[in-house]
Amino acid sequence: MEQEKEAYILGTEQAELHRLGVQHQVWASEARNAWQYAEFSQGQTILDLGCGPGFCTRDLAYIVGETGKVIGVDLSANYIEFLKKTAELHQLHNVQPLHTSFDDMDLSHVNLDGVYDRWALAWIPNPQEIIQKIADAMLPGAVFVAHEYYDWSTFQTQPIMPNLKKGIAAALRSFKEQAGDIDVGRFLPSMFEKAGLDVIRTRPMAKLATPDDLTWHWPKSFLNIYLPKLTQYLTPEEVDLALEDLEELEYQSGATIFCPQMIEVIAVKS
Ligand SMILES: C[S@@+](CC[C@H](N)C(=O)[O-])C[C@H]1O[C@@H](n2cnc3c(N)ncnc32)[C@H](O)[C@@H]1O
Predict the structure, then answer these.
(1) In a mutational test of the pocket of ligand 1, which residue from 5, 51, 104, 184 has the highest number of ligand atoms less than 8 Å from its CB?
(2) Count of C-beta atoms within a 10 Å radius of residue 189
(3) Which side of the chain, N or C, has fewer Cβ within a 10 Å radius?
(4) What's the burial of 7, exposed, middle or buried (CB within 10 Å: 0-12/13-18/19+)?
(5) What backbone phi and psi angles, to 5 degrees, belong to 3?
C-alpha cells in the first residue's frame, strides 16, 4: 500500500490502517449502541462519512441487509480499495464505495435514512457546509449519528511522564494548526440545529485505559505512529524519549491513560 499525497493528517499507510482497526475494536460497541438508538435497520440507505478502510461500513452493511445500502465515502484511494476488497470478500453487494472528497461528494440523487460520522468532520475547514449538504439528502425521520472529539486536550496519563506529555502536546499543536477543528464535536449540536436537524441525544464518551486492556492499544498505537511524523514539532530525540516514556508507563503500578474526550450527538430530520 502506497503513501498517498492527498492523504489526511494521520496518513493512510498500512500501519495507520491497522491502527484504525484497533481503534474500531475499542469503539465498536459504542457505535453499535448508537446505531441501535438511531434504529438503523434492514432496507435503509446509510452514509458512512469518511469511512476510512470501512470497518463501520462493513458492520452497517450487515445491519441494512441485502435490501439496504451503505455508501462509504472517503478521500483515500487506498482505503476505498480496501473497502472494495472487504465487500467482495464478504459478498456484501450492498456496499457502495465512493472515492471522493466531502466537497465533491454528490448526494443530489440520494435519499438517506441514516448517517454515521466518526472522526471525519475534524479534518475539514467547512463542517457546517458538509452537514447541510448531507441534511438536504436526508429523508424525514432520517437520523445522523456523530462521534467526534469534544476536547482533545484532556489526553493525559497517570503518572505524568514528562517526555510523553511533551509528545502529546506536540500532537495537539499539530491538530490545532491543521485545516479542521479537532474538537469539532462540541460544535455539532448547534451545527445540526442550524442545518435543520433536531438533536435528540448528546452524551460524553470517555475511555480510561489500563495496560492490560485492549483500550490501551488505542493511544499506544496512535502515539507510536503519529509522534515520529511530527518532525516540525519534535526532534527525533524528543520522539524517542516520548516513546520510551510510553513503554515505561506500561510497567508503572496503577498506570492509566485518559483518552481524549469524545461526544456523541444524534439528530433527526423532521
Ligand atoms: C480518523 S479516520 C476515521 C475513519 C472511520 N470513520 C473510522 O471511524 O474508522 C478519518 C477519515 O476521514 C477521511 N477524510 C479526511 N478528510 C476528508 C475529506 N475532505 N473528504 C473525504 N474524506 C476525508 C480520511 O481519509 C480518513 O479515512
Answers:
(1) 51
(2) 17
(3) C
(4) middle
(5) -75, 130
Task: Provide the CATH topology of domain 14-152+180-207+262-269.
Answer: Rossmann fold (3.40.50)
Strand partners, 46: 70, 114
- In the reported structure, the alpha carbon of residue 57 is separated from the centroid of ligand 1 by a whole-number distance in angstroms of 12
Pocket test for ligand 1, best of 30, 76, 117 (most atoms within 8 A of CB): 76
Is ligand 1 within 6 A of the CB of residue 242? Answer: no
In the block, residue with C-alpha cell 458492520: 59
The pTM assigned to this predicted structure is: 0.96
SS3 of 95, please?
Answer: strand
CA distance linking residue 128 with residue 117, whole number of Å? 13
> Dihedral through CA 19, CA 23, CA 25, CA 27, nearest 10?
-170
User: Measured in whole angstroms, how far is the alpha carbon of residue 73 from the centre of its chain?
Assistant: 13
In tens, the pLDDT along 166-216 reads 999 999 999 999 999 999 999 999 999 999 999 999 999 999 999 999 999
In this predicted structure, the answer to whether residue 78 has a pLDDT above a threshold of 70 is: yes
Q: In what order do the strands lie in the sheet with 256-258?
A: 156-158, 256-258, 208-209
Residue with cell 423532521: 270
